[in-house]
Amino acid sequence: MRVQLTLTLGLIAASCLLAGAEAETTVSREATILGGPRTRVSMYIWSDKYVYQEGQKLTLRWTVKTNGDRYPYTVFAYRQNNQNGKKFYLPNGQETATDVNGKTEETGYDAAPLSDTAKTVLIGDGGRFPSVTIPNELGMHTIVVQLRDYTGTRVVKTSYMKIGVVKGTQTVSGEIATSRTLTNDTQWNLQGIVTVKGGAVLTIEPGTFVVGQPGTTPPSALLVTQTGKIMANGTKSRPIIMTSSQPFGQRQRGDWGGIVMLGKAPINVGGNIPGSTGICPADGCKNAPGTFYIEGLVGNADSVYGGTDPNHSCGELRYVRVEYAGTIISPNNELNSFTWGGCGKGTVSEHLQAIYGKDDSFEWFGGNNDAKWLVGGLGADDFTDYQLGYTGRVQFGLMYQSPDAPGNRGVEGDNSEYNQAAEPFSNPTFFNISYYGSGIPGFDEANAPGLFLRRGSRGSFNNLVFSNYFSACINVSDATTQAQADLGNVTMNGILCHNTNIGTKGAMTLAGQIPAAYDLQYAQGQKGNGAGKNFLIADPLAARPFEYSDPDFMGLAMSPLNRVGWVAPPDDGFFDQSARFIGGIGDEDWTEEWTCWLNDPDIKVN
Does 412 share its domain with 502? Predict the structure, then answer.
């Protein structure tokens, strides 16, 4: 069909966003996923910084990659005040919905196919619209660019940029020994290690920006001790963003230290562990049995974790982003983006994103706290790492690397480096996670497979995807862990391997993707008392997993991710039993709006 075009965007040809060509409404198979047609267009937007004060000017850029999509879209752009939900549409800043040409539903929206553009100013000097002047409306706002169908009534794709409007900045340092709240009308700068202790509760309001400062000694980090608690409950529209203080395009992994939460749930460490590099003195740790000192910090009363209370609560994290965090103090002594040490079942960990971390994205040291809806991107080490008796449950995760930001392993699972037979054994249960590697060697580990188990670990791994790893798909790496598998204490049910073992040009067969003899026999059901089941070697046919600033991990219509027969999660009150797909996402995009996928090389200007 044809759609009459009456566009007035008037951008120069080199950066034209909408073309006046004849529109094609046919959507190809490549644009179809479970749930119906979906655009092939990749689009992302970003402002010049995160946090503004009244009267400052905001500039917004965007990149559009049409990928051959010629559908006629209606484009909308608006600012939304997330405190009251009000939307202010460009070009006139009015609350009545208008497209970018100022057309309303009554006058008839304009629609046209998009054209490719890169790092183009949309709002600001030289752009389609003048810079937005920040109003006196404190709290979190969202700048939104939205593609709708040619009628202007159905939303097809939305890009979000979260910003904060604040009255000023404050520095947080030292100890928090009495309860306090970090409000979303202020930018909070962390200086050094900020320690929550002595019965204090640190509350962080939805939509708050917490900014880590690089270059401090020790590095800036947020440490919640056994005697403190954090209540950081963001929302989908107002996530809590913990990030770097550096300008966009100049941020790096390890700009600050990350968040550490320590609890009183069981761990499997014995007493008086011999000297641990960077944590304890050379003559050893003076730790009581069942407790230890968290990695990345000096061994003292504030860094102790572990105990006998499996229901202990370290606090609540909901809709929290941790960006450019993680610090390597010394070899094998690092802070991660998110670190839990001995946190119990009372701890809430939901809708969390770690991007550009210096070390692991998510690491558990013992304890049994559960976690759901995790995004780990572009980290320098592992994505889900556990050890020292971790027995929690994890469901729904999307983990990815890139050649410009490689990491190591998807899953790294240990029982204990101090005693491989220590109890309680590490024995987590993972369901519905996708792991996409960089396709090149690990960041600093030569053997960096998708799933790596060692040191006597146990565990249950179900409905997982491993793709694009330079090393093998799975590796049960030592005799102690193989013995646990032979006892049926390591189970894998529903594992998709695709384009792994790249380093030795592994064939797209079970033997090519899982080359080690024991691991292959396990996957074939010959080892581990038949505990390895439902291994599939196939292209997951994800929509756009390697468009790093705007990925789409959903399966296309013919994707094996959606096939009938994957494992039903258990009915235990935690797992979502309806998730019978494989990988981290089905036909509902739980990452919508609260996440940020921006890849710094994609947004760096000049």
Answer: yes
pLDDT bin (cut points 50, 70, 90) of residue 330 is low
Helix (H) or strand (E) holding 479: helix 479-486
Rounded Cα gap, residues 288 and 600, in angstroms: 44
Residues 136 and 148 in one domain: yes
Q: What angle do CA 83, 140, 101 make, to 5 degrees?
A: 90
Dist. CA 603–CA 61, nearest whole Å: 9
Tokens representing residue 432 in the block: 């519905």
**Enclosing domain of residue 94:** 13-165
596 by DSSP, 3-state: which?
Answer: coil
Strands 186-196 and 168-176, by their bridges, are parallel
Tally Cβ neighbours within 10 Å of residue 510: 17
Q: Are residues 410 and 275 in the same domain?
A: yes
Q: Are residues 140 and 186 in the same domain?
A: no
Structural domains in the chain (count):
2
Do 18 and 74 lie in a common domain?
yes
Is residue 512 within a helix (H) or strand (E), and if so which, with residue range? Answer: helix 510-513
Question: pLDDT tens-digit profile of 124-156?
Answer: 999 999 999 999 999 999 999 999 999 999 999
| SS (HEC) of 355-393 | ECCCCCCEEEECCCCCEEEEEEECCCCCCEEEECCCCCE
Record the tokens describing residue 336, joined without a space: 């991660």
Residue pLDDT, tens place only, 367-394: 999 999 999 999 999 999 999 999 999 9
Residues 194 and 87 in one domain: no
Return the pLDDT at 481: 98
- Between the alpha carbon of residue 20 and those of residues 2, 7, 54, the distances in Å are 11, 8, 38
Q: What DSSP assignment string belongs to 218-285?
A: SPPEEEE-TT-EEEEE--SSS-EEEEESSPTTS--TTSS--EEEE--S-----SS----TTTS-TT--
Q: Could you tell me how far CA 480 lies from the centroid of its own chain?
A: 32
The answer to the question of residue 1 being in a domain is: no
pLDDT for res 34? 40
Last residue of a domain, one of 134, 165, 196: 165
- Residue 7 maps to a domain: no
Non-local (6+) Cβ contacts of 520 within 8 A are 510, 511, 514
Domain presence at residue 310: yes
Q: 114, 145, 165: which is the final residue of a domain? A: 165
Same domain assignment for residues 95 and 154: yes
Residue 7 confidence (pLDDT) above 90: no
Shared-domain flag, residues 223 and 135:
no
pLDDT tens digits for range 151-204: 999 999 999 999 999 999 999 999 999 999 999 999 999 999 999 999 999 999
Which of 352, 147, 387, 132 minimizes the C-alpha distance to 267? 387
Residue type, 328: I
User: Count of CB atoms within 10 A of residue 250's CB?
Assistant: 10
The residue that leads in pLDDT, 19 or 415, is 415
What's the pLDDT score for residue 22?
29
Please name which of 65, 117, 159 lies closest in space to residue 598, comparing C-alpha atoms. Answer: 159
Look at residue 572 and tell me if it is in a domain: yes
Q: Which helix (H) or strand (E) holds 523?
A: helix 517-523
